[in-house]
Here is the input.
Amino acid sequence: MAEQLWSFLFWCLCILTFTGKSFGDETCLVKIKTDQDVTLPCSFGTTLLDKRINWKKDGKDIFLYENGQVKPSSQDGQCKVQVSHFPDELKSGNASITIKQAKVSDSGTYICLFYEQDRILPTGRVEIKLTVDPVNITMDVYEDVILPCSFSTSLTDKRFDWKKDGEDVFFL
Here is the structure.
C-alpha cells in the first residue's frame, strides 16, 4: 500500500513538474520492480481528442493516438510493450500510459510527443527514463528454490539458457 502511495505521489510530482513548462530537455526518472504496473506521465494544457500523440521507447513506436483513435498497428515489431491509456482523460490533456506488469525488457527511454498539423509542438515532448529492477532471489546453501520465468509468446521451437553472473548454469 505504501509503495502504491509513493508511486502515485511521484506520478503527481512529474505531472506538476511538466505542466505549463517547456519540455525541451526535461527528463523524469522512474524506477520500479519487476511485475509492477507503472504509469508514465504525460500531460499538456489542451484537449487531445483531435490531436496526435505518439509514445516511443528507445526511438521505436509503442503507442499512437490520432484524431480520436488508437492505431493498433503502430507498435514496432521489435518492441512489444503492453500499454494502456486513459481515453476519458484526453479531453483534459492527459496523454499518460500505463505499462502492465513491467519486465526488465521494458526498461528504457520513453518519449511522449504531441503533434499538431504534423509537427511536434515546442512544448510537446516529455522524456521518461524507466528502470525495471530484476527479481533477486536469496537462498541458503543446499536450499531448494524455484526461479520464476515466464514468456508472453509460445516456447515451441525456442531455445533459452539459464545464466548466473553471465555464465551458463546447469540445473538438475
